[in-house]
Amino acid sequence: MIAEIGHLLLIISTALALLMALVPLYGVMTNNGYLRSYTRVLSSSAALALVTSVLCLAWGFISDDFSISYVANHSNTQLAWFYKIAAVWGSHEGSMLLWVTLIAVWGAIIALQHYQDDPDFIARQQAILGMIIAGFNLFLLFTSNPFARNLPNIPIEGRDLNPVLQDIGLIFHPPLLFLGYVGLTIIFAAAMAALLGSKLEKHQAGWLRHWVLIAWVFLTGGNALGSWWAYNELGWGGWWFWDPVENSSFIPWLVATALLHSVIVTEKRDGLKLTTLLLCLLAFSLSLLGTFLVRSGIVQSVHAFASDPTRGMSILSLLIIFVAGALLLFALKGERFKRALDFELVSKDSFILMGVAILVAAAMSVLLGTFYPLLFELAGLGTISVGAPYFNAIFVPLTFVTVVLMGITPMVQWQKDRSLQLKPLLMLAAITLVGATTLCVLHKEPMNLFLWLGSASAIWLLGCLILSLFACKGQNRKFSRRMLGMYIAHFGAVVSIIGATAISNYEEEAMLRMGPGQGKPLGDYIFVYEATENVESTAFTALQARIAVLDAEENPLGYIFPQRQTFKSNGMQMSQAGIDRGFLRDLYISKGVQLSDTEYLVRISIKPLACWIWLGGALMMIGGLLCALPCRRRVSVTESHPAQQPLLAGESA
């Protein structure tokens, strides 16, 4: 009965979303305040219906209701309760239901908070959200119903959640990523509302900046946590593989980063309106394109949710409808947002614009590398693979140029005293060149371009942040929370760059045939395989290696316990890495297939500064949240003349 209630609520929310798409918009068009006032009621009602529908699905998992096909395919009576909750969004149907629910909830919060501030703008935005919710709901009802029954053949036991997904990363990674996608949906609807109203006013740009920041924070967290999950759970020890499904969430993040910087200029200087609106449309379109990639079955990946061509074509149809409609409206109304550029070539605004262009170019290069093999095969030209060499060769240099601009942009003294600022910048450039070149010379591969670019990026950006802090102090400029957030986020980028550069160039690894009594020196450590132990848990049995770690003088440092797990529900085997984590290095050991009665294939890795990659991501999230928090400020005379208002140092990038 609970499943039928959830299904009915999904149908009701679809009807409410259709009304939400039509009634407020008609009220705005006819200047009918009574019809327009239904915005909050309809959005809140649709959100409530969808939240209750998700709770019904969650109850199906908690109560082990295997008459629901989705529950039977992704749960088991032996599954821990927190994984049962996570299984709600652990596969295609549930994740789509969660996604559309989060869109409705975020939309309802916006309608309740901001409707009185600008009724027409919010009503138009909610109407666009209503169209999107209705489209996703219809997709769920006709192709991906999470409440479909297994009648009359109800299984006694479920198939269990995919063992790869039974990790704490699954509990948080998808919701964070979906919240990021929801944020892109919100800003898409806001851009459409601005286009429909033929204006983007200062307070609307302020809301847009706030929503973009929140979306960017969640996208950053989703990508970082997904990388951390792959590092911990998949057993291959990498943190990024340029997998098509990984790229599908990374590409919108790049565009959202460009949008974040563009919308700051729009809010503060009333500039780049056309660029900001186009990036809003592009970010949402790319998130839908990534959804099509993940759920259509056209690529095979451990990250993919589904492999049903029918679902893929349905998502592609939604993509075409939304994107074509948005681009048509942009073509018709975009001319009204044009504004001549009124800033100097050497200025914060020009640096931001260049950074935006490079970030979009980087996103397009990743998009090309991701889809080129698919297009090549569809054209009947055979199969081709585009791997890490292409992405690194294109993306790393573009990242270097972006980092150079990131470092220069916050320097508020450029426009006041270039000669004063130029001297320390030239000194920093010299330090960067010498430092990066020295690291390359000392490395085992002196001509390693990627090591030079990564090292130079980190040295340059860190130095520029320090110079910028001194410049602000010298001008007695107030250190606002937004400025602090900017510095923390940019410092997080430095930390991630250092971690990625170190692990990519200084990792030591050995692939060994090991059994009890055998040892191997690697780096400054000695690894000794002492014994193989049998481990049993509720969900799986495992052959666990007990590997002692010794220093160079053979003093014991501890043990690492990699496992080869066999899950009871489906017999699936997987490798669970043993990791000795440290601030300066990780010792990473994964246990592979059995080679003889006592010997196994063992991969041992020393990964320098591995945790810095995700520590940097956490710092970027903290910085973004600080910038996103609302703050009270005095209204100055310059606010009535946005074109004359200077950017704050902390809000430039």
TrEMBL record:
<feature type="transmembrane region" description="Helical">
    <location>
        <begin position="424"/>
        <end position="444"/>
    </location>
</feature>
<feature type="transmembrane region" description="Helical">
    <location>
        <begin position="208"/>
        <end position="230"/>
    </location>
</feature>
<feature type="transmembrane region" description="Helical">
    <location>
        <begin position="96"/>
        <end position="115"/>
    </location>
</feature>
<keyword id="KW-0472">Membrane</keyword>
<feature type="transmembrane region" description="Helical">
    <location>
        <begin position="314"/>
        <end position="332"/>
    </location>
</feature>
<feature type="transmembrane region" description="Helical">
    <location>
        <begin position="352"/>
        <end position="375"/>
    </location>
</feature>
<dbReference type="InterPro" id="IPR002541">
    <property type="entry name" value="Cyt_c_assembly"/>
</dbReference>
<protein>
    <submittedName>
        <fullName>Heme lyase CcmF/NrfE family subunit</fullName>
    </submittedName>
</protein>
<keyword id="KW-0812">Transmembrane</keyword>
<keyword id="KW-1133">Transmembrane helix</keyword>
<feature type="transmembrane region" description="Helical">
    <location>
        <begin position="41"/>
        <end position="62"/>
    </location>
</feature>
<feature type="domain" description="Cytochrome c assembly protein">
    <location>
        <begin position="89"/>
        <end position="296"/>
    </location>
</feature>
<dbReference type="InterPro" id="IPR032523">
    <property type="entry name" value="CcmF_C"/>
</dbReference>
<comment type="function">
    <text>Required for the biogenesis of c-type cytochromes. Possible subunit of a heme lyase.</text>
</comment>
<feature type="domain" description="Cytochrome c-type biogenesis protein CcmF C-terminal">
    <location>
        <begin position="316"/>
        <end position="628"/>
    </location>
</feature>
<keyword id="KW-1003">Cell membrane</keyword>
<dbReference type="GO" id="GO:0016829">
    <property type="term" value="F:lyase activity"/>
</dbReference>
<dbReference type="Pfam" id="PF01578">
    <property type="entry name" value="Cytochrom_C_asm"/>
</dbReference>
<dbReference type="InterPro" id="IPR003568">
    <property type="entry name" value="Cyt_c_biogenesis_CcmF"/>
</dbReference>
<dbReference type="Pfam" id="PF16327">
    <property type="entry name" value="CcmF_C"/>
</dbReference>
<comment type="similarity">
    <text>Belongs to the CcmF/CycK/Ccl1/NrfE/CcsA family.</text>
</comment>
<feature type="transmembrane region" description="Helical">
    <location>
        <begin position="168"/>
        <end position="196"/>
    </location>
</feature>
<feature type="transmembrane region" description="Helical">
    <location>
        <begin position="450"/>
        <end position="472"/>
    </location>
</feature>
<feature type="transmembrane region" description="Helical">
    <location>
        <begin position="274"/>
        <end position="294"/>
    </location>
</feature>
<feature type="transmembrane region" description="Helical">
    <location>
        <begin position="6"/>
        <end position="29"/>
    </location>
</feature>
<dbReference type="InterPro" id="IPR003567">
    <property type="entry name" value="Cyt_c_biogenesis"/>
</dbReference>
<feature type="transmembrane region" description="Helical">
    <location>
        <begin position="390"/>
        <end position="412"/>
    </location>
</feature>
<feature type="transmembrane region" description="Helical">
    <location>
        <begin position="612"/>
        <end position="631"/>
    </location>
</feature>
<feature type="transmembrane region" description="Helical">
    <location>
        <begin position="484"/>
        <end position="506"/>
    </location>
</feature>
<feature type="transmembrane region" description="Helical">
    <location>
        <begin position="250"/>
        <end position="267"/>
    </location>
</feature>
<keyword id="KW-0456">Lyase</keyword>
<keyword id="KW-0997">Cell inner membrane</keyword>
<feature type="transmembrane region" description="Helical">
    <location>
        <begin position="127"/>
        <end position="148"/>
    </location>
</feature>
<keyword id="KW-0201">Cytochrome c-type biogenesis</keyword>
